[in-house]
């Protein structure tokens, strides 16, 4: 069984992606935890309901659309942090810097507490009116917390089959295997192959077959340097292919990567010649590296000209609060990049090792010598990194032309929002879009989307995209006005603070009512007690942040188990012995099943792969224990914080307007002074230091006002931006286009095709095209109508493999007659027998109970019992009538690489020639087609070589048969 449910990103203008894959046995896989630029917590409610039943989580790309909500769930839903997460190393590193930049520059990323939740919490104080929104913010995760969340992700390499570890509340995975393959698009981007039983699922969302400067192409045809003409074996003919439809109507410009780069640089040069500013909005960790490398190479290759028109006369900036960390991580991940980038790194090392006056450097690939000195990739000499807003404003105030790569592409937060507000009224400036901007939310399009729609309306982009010619057209604006939001964060006032405390108290009450720290799925009242008792509770600090996380965890569980609160003794059943105090007797007469068994819950032991967890404080000496108790007592006296529901005296502590005690304010001030004191010292050696993966890569700006700590709220105001700047577009999205989709999907030949990750029009267009492509191949277009699915958000699709497989029991006489053949660790045999109904042995107590029930109910319905059928030996009187001679059936999968090793070990000369062809002894060719058919060809007509070739021919055929299992029934 395999069902697929898109939670976000299906036939929607929202770029966020969240998908649930449910396999046989209750296994649930969450792929991607995306979020849009609106940061609306209401979008995440559908996923919250699935968290208690998730087995593992897979991440595909280090973009906000694929992991933007990861830190939010780790912070606010503690149960989420217990689910194993798998991703490639670049996705882990760059995803960490992305979310640190997001939470550092986007106040709304903290998430506004929904008004409906506040309405349930407020029971004494009418703080706001019906149409007002207090905009109270949840506590955002700190940079150190984000680094800790990503340090718990399990990193994987490409083409590495891995059997994941399930979550504590997940059923067994039963041999589930996941494998990551290169997807292109971003550094470390992943195509996931999921194998479970007969299900072979390929999840490919946002991939790119073309090679780029930094990122190599997708691994459909074997990856870089292979030149394959067929899809690799593991990704070919899956039972289900989940593919994105974004860009299905886009036609790549003629000329490929070089034409695209030239179009970008041409727009940049024309703007810089007028001393204008070019803003290129882009995400801070993924696609921005590709643009940075292109511009750095252009600045480096441009010679100085006498007229001063050189690019080097203009400034080049990369503006992001974590750009230095992203560049540092990129330097350590060269093995994940394109082979040209690896070659450049090797040549730079060779140039560095030249000594004794030898300035000749030899290219290890081409063998050519050069006197040119090479710098290592991402050692930017012209691109300047800007991590603070004050330095960005200083760079904008400089005279002359400049190019600024800034986050984010939506123009609603980040440094790009600051830059666009500064250059919008300058007619010589240019906002250069490099991808189609997505809508911020279902109610707001955002400034980036507004500019994109305006560009489509006034340019000839649509007609040019159909023909694939140059799309670098400039649209000049003349005073158009755009509405945009300006968000300011403030500390809570007295009324807001009381409202916030009531909200926390209400969530704490829900937590105490449900009492489900593990948050396991509760199918019944009895299961609720078992799941609750089988989970050990963890200690927590008395802080608002911890209360908030546990409260949201309880609220998520309560949302789908609210009807189980306030259960009566009859509804609790046998679990009343555990649930209620003072109850020691329960009448089991007339009960069945678990209602007759005394409830017992085995508590789990907390251990890992290295053994049981120990408490170091249990092994302290007496004097060490006394010293620790004194320190704890002293710390307890100094800590004067008020917990939820706890009374305090008027003189104990004084809460300020921002919700912090005086001691907490002093600690915060000293911490900021300490941080600011080391920031300038550490700035010069940022790229030479070795950082721990669990450390934060974000440093605050000492010139900017401090962000309020403690409970906060967002003050949202509307402002108008009058645009006199120009808008242009060059496609640097790095996604698949129409040609790639139409070429590869027929080669992959999936049995079921599910299209997600695109808008409605392009999804339906691609579905129509795929039905024609797959139908023309099968010769029946009507049959292919059933294999293409286009689900909408929340729609569940049943894409199980179409097989006639049944579970039966083999009788002992039949087992003794079977002759099993081993095929790669699997036993294969063909049988002919008689199928009989299984026998059911009833317990006498159950039998007496069923007799009582027959007196008041229909006996036929009560007697219906399902059992596994039994396959037994065919009787002798039927064996002769049903005996048939079956043709031998070859079971297995021959790999040419294994055959090559086998023939070489047997003394033959075997080598690969062309695609899928193995040449043996220079005269016999062995080919394997895409359907698995093996063909052996040889020239045996020549008299002088006929005898020798025939012997070799039959020897090769015998070796092939030995690698397969020959089975036949009869």
- Which fold name corresponds to the CATH topology of the largest domain? Metallo-beta-lactamase, Chain A
- In what order do the strands lie side by side in the largest sheet? 7-5-4-3-2-1-27
Sheet having the most strands: 7 strands, mixed
Number of domains: 5
- Alpha plus pi helix count: 29
Radius of gyration: 33 Å
Helix content: 25-40%
Classified in CATH, the superfamily of the largest domain is Ribonuclease Z/Hydroxyacylglutathione hydrolase-like
Spans with pLDDT under 50 lasting ≥5 residues?
Answer: 463-470, 514-547, 549-566, 639-698, 776-785, 855-865
Mean pLDDT: 76
Strand content: 15-25%
For the record, the CATH architecture of the largest domain stands as 4-Layer Sandwich
Globular, elongated, flat, extended or rod-shaped: what is the shape? Answer: globular
Query: In CATH's first tier, which class of the largest domain applies?
Result: Alpha Beta
Give the termini separation: 31 Å
Structural class: alpha/beta
Question: How would you describe this protein?
Answer:
There is one protein chain. With 970 residues, the chain is of the alpha/beta class. It folds into 5 domains: 2-251 and 731-798, Metallo-beta-lactamase, Chain A; 256-334 and 372-486 and 723-729, Rossmann fold (3-Layer(aba) Sandwich); 521-611, no CATH class; 809-820 and 831-854 and 865-879, no CATH class; 889-967, TATA-Binding Protein, CATH 3.30.310. Strands 7-5-4-3-2-1-27 form a 7-stranded mixed sheet. Strands 16-13-17-12-18-24-19 form a 7-stranded mixed sheet, sandwiched between helices. Helix 4 runs antiparallel to helix 9 and helix 5 crosses helix 15 (494-514). It is globular, with a radius of gyration of 33 Å.
